[in-house]
Design a protein that fits this description.
342 residues; alpha+beta; Rossmann fold; GMP Synthetase, Chain A, domain 3; 11-stranded mixed sheet; 4-stranded mixed sheet; 7 helices; disordered C terminus
């Protein structure tokens, strides 16, 4: 059983709650939020997008901000029952029938939802809140299948540092570029590098700071849509999210290269039908390193809890351009002996 982070008395903020970024995308950091910030965010998202909620089924663990907000804080504020699906993620939860239900989803949760959300239109309805990762094909299929029923799905855009920044309906079309709309208490602008900078009263306080952030520039690059919306274009860094867990591919490459001196390592992003996105790892080096278990052990030793590569490929050399950049589109064809899942 995973316990939610407890409020910590610090002298300055007697009941602030810590949330940690893992360090898989850089140095680990604790970010603090006041109970007031947590309450305001949960209620703001509920008022904006959720409608009536009579019970909650939460798949997101509460040590993360998304799970804490909608699996702990919101049910307490609404005084509704909550099914702690994060306690036993391999079992199908059993919500009470006849209640309008909020499902708090990670990318992998959507495989379970098909058995929980009725296909008929004669039930009180449900809303799925999707956060901390890309939308999977399973999620889009379910939204498409449940059209015409009292089921809706909403995506949340945000981070540990910012909290929820924007919302949009979850679109069943994989090519859709539906704009994200800022929440009412958020202002934002786009810099020369196309990264989104946000300001809101819910920005977190870094462990080393006395006060909350005043602004935060996210890794996300966007196209601004006046007056208060944007279209997401990508990330300015090599960070991915594997079922809600941050993972910087550059950090993984450095960890494996450090464990095996003289080895070249390149990671590439790949889609994952269950977790939204994942990555493959390509490496050179001695044949003994071709065993994926050695690579897996190196990642785990250097970055405990870091998502592991979907597959590990041993190749003779990393194909590179004239300027030395890895040619990602040639890595798969350069693989020798195929790939082995890690």
């Amino acid at each position: 059983m995973t316990a939610p982070p407890a409020p910590v008395r610090t002298g300055r903020a007697p009941a602030d709650v810590p949330f940690r970024t893992s360090g898989h995308s850089g140095a680990p950091v604790r970010w603090w939020r006041t109970p007031g910030q947590l309450r305001e965010e949960a209620l703001l998202v509920a008022r904006t997008a959720l409608g009536t909620v009579e019970q909650v089924v939460c798949f997101a663990p509460p040590q993360h901000l998304f799970g804490r907000l909608f699996g702990i804080v919101l049910p307490e504020l609404l005084d509704v029952p909550v099914v702690r699906a994060w306690d036993d993620p391999v079992s199908v939860p059993a919500p009470r029938p006849g209640l309008r239900t909020l499902f708090v989803c990670l990318p992998s949760s959507w495989l379970v939802l098909r058995s929980l959300i009725p296909a008929t239109s004669d039930h009180p309805g449900a809303v799925a809140l999707h956060g901390t990762g890309p939308v999977t094909d399973v999620a889009r299929d379910l939204v498409r299948e449940r059209r015409g029923t009292p089921f809706t799905a909403v995506e949340v855009f945000g981070s540990t540092e910012t909290g929820a920044v924007a919302l949009r309906p979850l679109d069943a079309d994989p090519g859709a570029t539906t704009p994200w709309r800022l929440l009412d208490d958020v202002t934002a602008h786009v810099g020369d590098d196309d990264r989104l900078t946000v300001r809101s009263p819910r920005l977190a306080r870094r462990d080393t700071d006395d006060r909350p952030l005043t602004t935060w520039t996210m890794d996300d690059t966007v196209t601004w849509v006046p007056p208060r919306s944007f279209v997401w274009r990508g990330r300015s860094t090599r960070m991915i999210k594997v079922n809600g867990l941050r993972c910087d591919l550059g950090v993984v490459e450095e960890a494996v290269a450090s464990a095996f001196p003289g080895t070249e390592v390149v990671c590439t992003t790949t889609g994952d039908p269950v977790r939204g996105e994942s990555y493959d790892l390509f490496h050179t080096g001695p044949r003994g390193l071709a065993d994926p278990r050695a690579v897996r052990a190196a990642v785990t030793a250097a970055l405990p809890g870091c998502p592991l590569p979907r597959a590990v490929h041993h190749i003779d050399r990393i194909p590179r351009s004239a300027t030395g950049k890895p040619l990602l589109n040639r890595l798969t064809t350069a693989a020798t002996g195929g790939s082995r899942p890690c």
